[in-house]
Design a protein that fits this description.
2 domains; EC 2.4.2.29; TIM Barrel; alpha/beta; binds zinc ion; globular; 15 helices; Queuine tRNA-ribosyltransferase; 6-stranded parallel β-sheet; glycosyltransferase; zinc; tRNA_ribo_trans-like
Length: 373
């Protein structure tokens, strides 16, 4: 591992921590929320707007970039940072989650579009239906071409619910795939995370966490959650896993991120989050406010000339009213999606900043209580 990467805990309260994560593309203050830029762009955003909001790191999806524009184009461009024109840190996932979720979804005849083999995973893509094969080595190769700062090994995401026997076999396979990924990785300027799986079985989660930690990686991710299970179960799994992760290394909870989840999972020791919720919900008119979620397209906002959130200082709230935003959404104007996304991402950015400040000042538990009442 290159010296360009380090992680330091600056303050803590209970299991909640504030950290400084150093990467070749800049410093990230944790806990951090990473907006999802599936196709190398955060939907309805341009990078300049992300920078104005204060976004520190974005996530991009290997599966989607592999399908479009293709790895070769990104290689010719000199890597992902250069191709998309974003010079701050990038995390790429392994593509595993999309392979399993999108391919399963597209089958019309009730057959799975995915075949899991020891060598890797065979799947039909969601665009053309053509056949592809991902191995742990191929997934590392692609991410080495991308040059993303944080890279993820191929893992298997099992469905919810699943059987114990299947989940157990899957955990073992994910560990074998992790070993192959570690062995295959060549670049020194990227940090590989291990992914803890184990579905919703506490002992499998514990075993997966301990075995993954034995591999001594830069950081650890928790995968396979927020796939339809009740929240209490998700929180319980995060709690079990965090107990077994080393305190001094970064922890990333994959694909989980409603505001209350961020608060609850920071409380359990998570440092990094990603989720499509704030951006996807913005595009359907659901906006987060300090008083809860609102749907801006609602009739009650037709003549409401106040900002979306009195406590928000984002570009949208500083300049526009609910009535105007509602009008833009109703007229299906592109600016509606932009202004809604600016607000939701600003709301998330402020929440994470408030969380960090609260932990530093020893009042995180009181912030947490304000979210649970
Ligand atoms: Zn706002």
């Amino acid at each position: 591992m290159s010296k360009a990467f380090s992680f330091e805990i600056l303050a803590s309260e209970g299991n909640a921590r504030v950290g400084r994560l150093i990467t070749p593309h800049g410093v990230i203050e944790t806990p951090v929320f990473m907006p999802v830029g599936t196709q190398g762009t955060v939907k309805a955003m341009i990078h300049r707007l992300l920078e104005e909001i204060g976004v520190q790191v974005i996530l991009s999806n290997t599966y989607h970039l592999y399908l479009r524009p293709g790895v070769e184009v990104i290689e010719l461009a000199g890597g992902l940072h250069s191709f998309i024109g974003w010079q701050k840190p990038i995390l790429t996932d392994s593509g595993g989650f999309q392979v399993f979720s999108l391919s399963r979804r597209r089958t019309k005849d009730n057959r799975s579009g995915v075949r899991v083999l020891e060598e890797g995973v065979e799947f039909r893509d969601h665009l053309s239906g053509s056949l592809h094969f991902f191995t742990p080595e191929k997934v590392i190769d692609m991410q080495e071409v991308f040059g993303s700062d944080f890279i993820m090994p191929l893992d298997e995401c099992v469905e919810y619910p699943t059987t114990y026997t299947y989940a157990q076999a899957s955990v073992e396979r994910t560990l074998r795939w992790l070993d192959r990924s570690i062995k295959h990785k060549k670049r020194e300027d990227q940090a590989l995370f291990g992914i803890v799986q184990g579905a919703f079985f506490e002992d499998l989660r514990r075993y997966s966490a301990m075995a993954t930690v034995e591999r001594d990686l830069f950081g650890y991710a928790i995968g396979g959650l927020s796939v339809g299970e009740p929240k209490e179960i998700m929180y319980a799994m995060v709690e079990v896993v965090c107990e077994y992760l080393p305190w001094q290394k970064p922890r990333y909870l994959m694909g989980v991120g409603m505001p209350e989840d961020l608060v609850e999972c920071v409380a359990r020791g998570i440092d990094m989050f990603d989720c499509v919720a704030p951006t996807r919900m913005a595009r359907t008119g659901t906006l987060f406010t300090s008083q809860g979620k609102i749907n801006i397209t609602n009739e009650i906002y037709k003549k409401d000339f106040s900002p979306v959130d009195e406590e928000c200082n984002c570009y949208t709230c500083r300049n526009f009213t609910k009535a105007y935003l509602r009008h833009l959404y109703k007229a299906d104007e592109i600016s509606a999606y932009i202004l809604g996304t600016v607000h939701n991402l600003s709301f998330y950015h402020k929440l994470m900043k408030d969380i960090r400040t609260a932990i530093k000042e020893g009042r995180f538990e009181s912030l947490r209580r304000s979210w649970t009442v």
